[in-house]
Specification:
The complex is a heterodimer of chains A (313) and B (292). With 313 residues, chain A is mainly α. Chain A contains 13 helices and no strands. Chain B has a domain of 203 residues: MetI-like fold (Orthogonal Bundle). Helices cover 71% and strands 0% of the residues of chain B. Chain B is built from twelve helices and no strands. Classes of the chains: A mainly alpha (313), B mainly alpha (292). Chains A and B meet through α1, α6, α7, α11 and α12 of A and α5, α6, α9, α10 and α11 of B.
Chain lengths: 313, 292
């Protein structure tokens, strides 16, 4: 167990280091001089030299890299070129919206996906199962942002139930402003939940110990309730953690659709304004979130499920 | 040569030859999917000849007119025919999708095959690189590449393959671990074939099958990604249109002219459904009988 955990944490550290290397090169791969591009026409050569010095771009590459790593590890993300305030502070202000959107999207995907998966698994290969399967196929083909627009058109513009742009905090505010984007985000994930959960439920329902439970006269509903649902908690936790990268990508576009002031819209702004410091920090943050989420799931799973192979891959 | 062919056919796991049967061998699901894809690829390919109007033909006397026989998908805020624009956008999008799906597939399968065959340090290093690559949120990484090279198709053509190969490498590496123990693979050693011949001629064709099936899913993911980026304004720059940018154009007038955003989106959905049906049908194993 301990050696498994050590190996798993070591792997996460290797991956995080890889992320640091990759993001470090963002600013160095820009064709030409990034400082000149950003400050084009607005700065004297002296200012350009000063900014270059501030960003340590005048140092040898290796020194820059060690400096970058030590800064990032300590949470010093630098100062945004365009917004003129610390990157960490800007991200802090915007993080809440994106986190709320992702959490809400996950919640909706479970509320939609889990019941459908159970229904499909209890009646496999019937018209009900088939139509659920067809529905999930459709969710994979839907562009999230387009679905968001369609939801905004129907429930926002036509019916007037929800606002179609902007964000407000608090429970009521979140329910009002984030329901449509969260639904657009969660629907594709609900498709994944249904597919994965259905097949693992079917597997369990055909296993011998469930057969034994049935033969003792337990009703099908209790079989599912007691045994199958326990399994589904694990299965869905894994699905959610595997798809966190997908969810982050989805928020980038959906925040633009519904004009939410989150990290996704910040990233798009940063790219448009060529704020490389900001792009660097946001890319690193998104990657780190994915790595840490999958690490957390694996560790929790190792504690909860005795069947997890502890021998590594 | 003929001797090894016999060994190949007898010992290769059932359904592992790439020759994808004939059309008749496909399941009904897969046939419908293949039909939809063929239709869309044909529409994109023939766009310059079948589009009733030019993609940027502006007509200010005819803005936001609803779908009709003259304009199958209506017109947008500049009086441009949405159907014609969609055809040209489809042409551009499908070309990009193919370019960012299949070259990485070939590279990934080869890298995975070599890693799986030899194992050792190379394999371990590759596994870590694949882990790092897959750990990145795809969309964020591609946007980071676009931040470097600037908005446009170039960023997508660089950014997507940077990640896409890794999934195929992982897939074919794990299959190679099984494959290399197969009798027909061992026979290539007994026959004194070079390692290169063994991998290129005998392993890779077997590994291609599952990667090709997976690629149908990958094409959908890539089209969704492309549309998303184009919607954000990070894709092809005007006057060139992508499906995502047409949808974005229509957003401001959705209540009065729903068709501008809705109909091009349906084309994306149609492509997705077609590719998913094909992929599902192929992986169901219904094809197996016709594969040998």
């Amino acid at each position: 167990m301990l050696s498994y955990l050590v190996r798993r944490v070591a792997l996460a550290i290797v991956v995080l280091f890889g992320l640091l290397v990759a993001t470090f090169f963002i600013i160095h791969l820009v064709p030409g001089d990034p400082v000149r591009i950003v400050l084009a026409g607005r700065a004297s050569p002296a200012t350009i030299a000063r900014v270059r010095h501030q960003l340590a771009l005048d140092r040898p590459l290796w020194t820059q890299f060690t400096l970058y790593v030590s800064n990032m590890v300590q949470g010093h993300f630098g100062t945004s070129f365009t917004l003129d305030s610390p990157v960490a502070q800007i991200i802090g202000q915007r993080l809440g919206v994106s986190a709320a959107l992702i959490a809400y999207g996950m919640l909706l995907s479970l509320l939609i996906g889990v019941p459908l998966a159970i229904i499909a698994a209890l009646r496999p290969n019937t018209w009900l199962d088939n139509s659920i399967r067809l529905g999930t196929t459709l969710t994979f083909a839907l562009p999230g942002f387009w679905l968001g627009l369609m939801l905004a058109l129907v429930f926002g513009l036509k019916l007037g139930w929800f606002p179609v742009a902007g964000y407000s905090g608090g429970i009521v505010g979140i329910l009002q402003t984030l329901t449509l984007p969260a639904l657009a985000l969660g629907l594709a994930l609900a498709g994944v939940v249904v597919r994965t959960l259905r097949s693992s439920l079917l597997e369990v329902l055909q296993s011998e110990h469930i057969e034994a439970t049935r033969s003792r006269g337990m009703s099908e509903l209790r079989v599912v309730g007691r045994h199958a649902l326990r399994l589904s908690v694990m299965a869905t936790a894994t699905i959610l953690s595997i798809n966190i990268g997908f969810l982050i990508g989805g928020t980038v576009v959906l925040e633009q659709v519904f004009q939410l002031p989150g990290l996704g819209s910040l990233l798009v702004e940063a790219v448009e304004k060529r704020d490389y410091q900001l792009v660097q920090a946001l890319t690193l943050l998104a990657g780190a979130a994915v790595v840490l989420a999958s690490l957390a799931t694996d560790v929790v799973q190792a504690f909860l499920d005795p069947r997890v192979k502890l021998s590594g891959r | 040569m003929s001797a090894i062919d016999v060994v190949d056919q007898q010992q290769a796991p059932a359904g592992s030859r790439v020759r994808l049967g004939g059309f008749r061998g496909l399941s009904r699901e897969a046939k419908i999917g293949a039909g939809i894809l063929a239709l869309l690829f044909l529409a994109g390919l023939l766009a310059p000849w079948i589009a009733p109007y030019g993609q940027n033909q502006i007509n200010f006397t005819d803005i936001y007119s609803p779908p009709s026989l003259a304009h199958l998908m209506g017109t947008d805020g500049a009086g441009r025919d949405v159907f014609s624009r969609t055809l040209f956008a489809l042409r551009l999008d499908l070309a990009i999708v193919v370019l960012v799906t299949y070259p990485p597939l070939v590279i990934g399968v080869f890298v995975g095959a070599v890693a799986g065959y030899f194992g050792g340090i190379f394999d371990a290093t590759l596994a870590r690189i694949v882990d790092v690559t897959i750990a990145m949120p795809f969309m964020v990484l591609v946007i980071a590449v676009i931040a470097i090279v600037g908005p446009g198709v170039k960023g997508i053509l660089i950014g997507v393959p940077l990640v896409a190969w890794a999934l195929y490498a992982r897939l074919s590496r794990s299959e190679m671990l099984v494959l290399r123990e197969q009798p027909f693979m061992l026979a290539t050693v007994a026959l004194g074939y070079t390692t290169r011949r063994t991998i290129v001629r005998h392993a890779v064709p077997n590994l291609m099958r599952s990667s090709l099936i997976y690629s149908t899913l990958d094409m959908v993911a890539n089209l969704l990604l492309l549309s998303g980026l184009a919607y954000l304004g990070l894709g092809a720059q005007p006057p060139n249109a992508e499906l995502g940018s047409i949808i974005a154009d229509g957003q401001s007038a959705m209540l009065t002219a729903w068709w501008v955003s809705t109909l091009p989106g349906l084309v994306v959905v149609l492509f997705g459904v077609g590719a998913l049906l094909l992929g599902d049908g192929l992986s169901d194993g219904k094809l197996r009988g016709t594969l040998q």
